[in-house]
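Fold this complex.
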Amino acid sequence: MKVWAVANQKGGVGKTTTAVTLAGLLAAAGRSTLLVDLDPQGSLTAYFGFDPDGMDGSVYDLFDALARDSAIDVAALLHDTGTDDLALLPAATAMATLDRQLGTRAGMGLVVARALKGLAGRFDHVVMDCPPMLGVLMVNALAACDELLIPVQTEFLAIKGLERMLSTLQMIGRSRGGAPPHVIVPTFFDRRTRASTDALRLLRDRWDAHMWPRVIPVDTRFRDASRAGLPPPAFDAASRGCQAYASLLRWLQSRQAAPVRETPP
Ligand SMILES: Nc1ncnc2c1ncn2[C@@H]1O[C@H](COP(=O)(O)OP(=O)(O)OP(=O)(O)O)[C@@H](O)[C@H]1O
Ligand SMILES: [Mg+2]
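Structure:
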């Protein structure tokens, strides 16, 4: 089971869109996929027509079980998205109180990792959507993932957000024995604007080694897909945006398939 997290401390950079599109592509390819909504705003949960204000069974329950010292059946928290091979572990608005309620409790940082272990064998892939802030939920995502995707809007201000995210990653990496590998994904690219092309050049100058070499273009079909409540690949697989995410997915998978370099004797 491969576990990816999608995170950036900056809001509105395409995190939820990246998570739902990659998961939709994996599901469309017949890979059994779980989306996990770790954002108390519940954008992903609402995407599939659920109400994060009144969720029966959500990520919140995982933390609540820890607080009560009780066991929990993680599989019972899964919801059907209406798309084949795509399940959702939704968010609840109450998750916004977790840092205050349980922030320092032992084991708080590994709640999601443990829950996913309980689901191993059931899914080929897990894609987690994170809130745009550092807190216990993002810490859990970074502890649970094999790889982190960082969508960065191609505009100047977004670069500051990326710097913040990368220093968070380093800080958290110290406690988990190394930061998870990360890939920067340039989003909202509009080649007709100087802002986009300049920002992309700046990103490549500074972080080339950690960047997906292509871009996700601005595409209004993402908004149309979210209005329809369908993963973008189920809504319009031929759209430019979906095609770009398909290329990202192939790139991520081919890198994973690459042989591990042998250490010399
Ligand atoms: N490449 C794109 N082109 C055009 N619109 C996009 C693109 N990616 C995302 N959007 C739209 O922009 C809005 C914000 O995107 P999204 O919700 O994915 O960002 P986010 O980083 O998850 O935001 P938040 O920080 O609030 O969770 C959504 O309405 C989405 O449909
Ligand atoms: Mg989001």
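Confidence is low (pLDDT under 50) at residues 261-265.
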